[in-house]
Amino acid sequence: MKRYLFAIALCLSAAICVAQPPRGGGHHPHHDRHDHHPQPVVYCATPEQVAMTQQVMTDMSFDDKKLEVAKLAVCLAPFCARDLAQLASVFSFDESRLAFLQFAYPYCSDPEHYPFLRDVFSFSSNYDKLMQSIHP
Known about the structure:
It is built from six helices and no strands.
């Protein structure tokens, strides 16, 4: 378990340097001089990071261990809602999916897409609980 957590921490922490928004006065590719309403830039983990996290989670036998790995991952890298949906699909039970997605919400790089996570759950009541917990 420790070997897996170390590997995932090492890989995802590398993403922190790469995924940070640009600083300072340099030109940003999404900001045009004539654009008065620049589009927000969403930083997400790479597909490789998502796949590696998913693989580590899949190698765990129980949801509580998968949850530990998933929580560590979202603390270390900027996951998008679609990535969180992929990770949530690894859990065996809706209860674990709900706990994970509730935890991950403040870390999500595009939380406005959380309403699209309905298909992650086996029961719509768990989706309703998620929405109520993030938008009381």
